[in-house]
Known about the structure:
Chain A is of the alpha+beta class. In chain A, 28% of the residues lie in helices and 23% in strands. Chain A is globular, with a radius of gyration of 26 Å. Chain B has a five-stranded antiparallel beta sheet with strand order 4-5-10-6-7. Chain B has a four-stranded antiparallel beta sheet with strand order 11-12-13-14, with helices on both faces. In chain B, 42% of the residues are buried.
Amino acid sequence: xxxxxxxxxxxxxxxxxxxxxxxxxxxxxxxxxxxxxxxxxxxxxxxxxxxxxxxxxxxxxxxxxxxxxxxxxxxxxxxxxxxxxxxxxxxxxxxxxxxxxxxxxxxxxxxxxxxxxxxxxxxxxxxxxxxxxxxxxxxxxxxxxxxxxxxxxxxxxxxxxxxxxxxxxxxxxxxxxxxxxxxxxxxxxxxxxxxxxxxxxxxxxxxxxxxxxxxxxxxxxxxxxxxxxxxxxxxxxxxxxxxxxxxxxxxxxxxxxxxxxxxxxxxxxxxxxxxxxxxxxxxxxxxxxxxxxxxxxxxxxxxxxxxxxxxxxxxxxxxxxxxxxxxxxxxxxxxxxxxxxxxxxxxxxxxxxxxxxxxxxxxxxxxxxxxxxxxxxxxxxxxxxxxxxxxxxxxxxxxxxxxxxxxxxxxxxxxxxxxxxxxxxxxxxxxxxxxxxxxxxxxxxxxxxxxxxxxxxxxxxxxxxxxxxxxxxxxxxxxxxxxxxxxxxxxxxxxxxxxxxxxxxxxxxxxxxxxxxxxxxxxxxxxxxxxxxxxxxxxxxxxxxxxxxxxxxxxxxxxxxxxxxxxxxxxxxxxxxxxxxxxxxxxxxxxxxxxxxxxxxxxxxxxxxxxxxxxxxxxxxxxxxxxxxxxxxxxxxxxxxxxxxxxxxxxxxxxxxxxxxxxxxxxxxxxxxxxxxxxxxxxxxxxxxxxxxxxxxxxxxxxxxxxxxxxxxxxxxxxxx
Amino acid sequence: xxxxxxxxxxxxxxxxxxxxxxxxxxxxxxxxxxxxxxxxxxxxxxxxxxxxxxxxxxxxxxxxxxxxxxxxxxxxxxxxxxxxxxxxxxxxxxxxxxxxxxxxxxxxxxxxxxxxxxxxxxxxxxxxxxxxxxxxxxxxxxxxxxxxxxxxxxxxxxxxxxxxxxxxxxxxxxxxxxxxxxxxxxxxxxxxxxxxxxxxxxxxxxxxxxxxxxxxxxxxxxxxxxxxxxxxxxxxxxxxxxxxxxxxxxxxxxxxxxxxxxxxxxxxxxxxxxxxxxxxxxxx
Lengths: 721, 284
Ligand SMILES: Cc1cc2nc3c(=O)[nH]c(=O)nc-3n(C[C@H](O)[C@H](O)[C@H](O)COP(=O)(O)OP(=O)(O)OC[C@H]3O[C@@H](n4cnc5c(N)ncnc54)[C@H](O)[C@@H]3O)c2cc1C
């Protein structure tokens, strides 16, 4: 049922929008998500979880189970298998044994054919614990409250960076401005909750999963069963949103699942309902960033001493990598002299924190942007005026003493935003009126792809593009469509190179037994890195287009020339290229209720070249609104180790009524090593809006804002202070 | 598993209620959520339930004498769009939940749920609404503030159904309604405030103020209201600070997952100030 697709992009710019290839199926409800899929003899599993944040696990009393029902635990891991998940770090256990480290930790699975029976059985399971003293906050973790959770000091990772000569600065006599910026947990709130089905087929364990990284999952679980990675097949199910929440966390479900499939040898489904998903899945890392900034007699920044700590929760998983990105982003778009940065990822007894759109950068950038705006306020200057003095330029130096290789278009972008938002005139007017209204602004960038030489040394992406006898082309990559539009944009890249209609290009559903490993769907890398390989493979194919029969073209990742990185010292080019952004937000604060009305949102981004204008705008709108939710509404508190806002009635994400449309603009800045000049953009568009919002409210109420979410409760408190 | 009944007529409904005590489910938008259970399982009701949303006899709204009668099963969406309903109640209902929810949810469900954050409840307190309760053998009516006795608690008997809400028609000179929700749409209240003022010849003849979500029950004080009756602008302005102080004592909110006690109290008092300014405007 091929409806006509607009192929104008073949003659015009590649960004000319097409109808997304998945649009009709998804909009019409025909698309089958994992919970909709039918499997013969399907059994259901319920996770049995720890109700204690930190305890010795004494005993699990399982009732007598009816025929056809199973209780699966670490005792069922086969000989030679390990009770651990091979994630980025392999400390997360498949099943808790002896101790539990957080509320919601997997203890076992109850499996059987009738979910009503499972629910009743679950209530009869009695778990005895001996409670231990938990640590929930960064400070409690650092103080090793209740004894170490990890190592001797609860430090999952600590790194130190130095640029210039900070030591001499801070022993000098400059004016020092101190600051502390806090960010909280954030829930991914993807539309489709976590879910997957495991089967045993032809000697292989087949997992059909809503996920971002099929190859990650394969690697994570093979060791549990002591089988080769090839004996695990991960096939992507249509995925209803992910935002990083389906990067590593699905491994935590897949681990117990494969043990169940190993024992029972029947298809088993685990699908979380929303309440489980909010309560018992990973969240964005909370952060605390402290600044000591030295200012000279000309009101210029001469040095910064920065200390970042993030709350990693009960297991490390990828916290050290998130920390790295937070550190590499904590100077935002500024080339500042004499920087010292200390970063620590701290173990606590909260639910392990994990990947979330931006991966540490939103925390680092929020902290930097707010601190810079506080400096501006202290020096009685306007934020934009103060900050632009320090804009990094082409050839400028990053906090890892790397170089900015590309053209930096921030001045041009700033002009555009100032004009579209009316930033200067409005702020002048509102300040005169004394009204609680203001326009805030933020600047940000995001390095595309894996940090440093990760693409070259760790991921080593490979793609294949094939043409069959009928001259139909298929793209084989392990990067998934999860709502972001990659299926469509990848096909556009191939179609444009080959000069064939989009209808003749197909996107192979990622399945580890079929597609090569082009890496995970993360780090804003799919189009910039994998899309480039698709472009190159399509070029190759074009050269052999007239060959007989089917033709295959494969391409492997090659690092762009001139990129230097030392992964031990963290010195050099952390990223080959950046997306850049500026966001302005106008607010009015209600005098009686401290509720905030957002009057306008203006953005300008440099993402190289858009591969589809509409998809890009979708990402901009979605990312900006998601960030405004993070900055204003999405309070997620931990009470005695459990998330307090655990329903959508209480965990407040924005609706269409909460924010006006985003006025989004782009500047073109083609990147030589991206497909058709494209750079990474999926996370960039999340990184800055929270700070623009906070800066606007800060100006409107004339108080320093040091934490998000900036909700009416916080504003009321600040106004009273 | 809970037994469920689907009565075909109102008579059958009250009979089932008398015989089994089955708990009525109207729109189910409170009950189904409160007793939710995992995907693929039946809702987890601890008692028999009776689905009453199909009963035509329980639907409709009309004027009767000096009252507006809203039958208990009338959906919120119908109330929202009815011209004969007081505009403040319509506005409060319009700000509840989202369209799909309002097509299912009922006013009586909002009342019987007896949450201090029930948006319509706050307005109904201020409007002086009465509720009508019917069993197979008797009918009684009482003011809403007698019906609700605590958070989640009412005087509804096991054999009774709420059959109507009766709202006296009254003509106010001005009204005040403000809901402070957790966001701009589809949001539960952090607090709400409803006020009516009637002025004749520059004197207060009627003043009503109801405050939602600032204590275990909606707050309304007949005593404080009656002290204002007869006042002119000068008198009211002099009395205002004291009145505010007395209301402040009635406002006893808590910290919870939606807001803080401090915010609720401060904001409620700010809204009371706004209402008082409206009164002064009406008096001058
Ligand atoms: C997403 C969402 C958003 C919401 N937003 C709001 C909001 O903004 N403001 C707000 O106030 N509420 C809100 N609610 C709560 C709910 O929708 C309202 O309270 C609604 O009015 C309940 O009506 P119902 O008919 O669905 O009640 P039900 O769930 O059917 O019943 C609620 C209670 O009333 C009893 N009951 C119902 N009818 C009768 C009767 N005739 N006789 C005796 N007992 C009866 C039931 O037994 C039960 O105890 C929201 C709920 C959801 C799920």
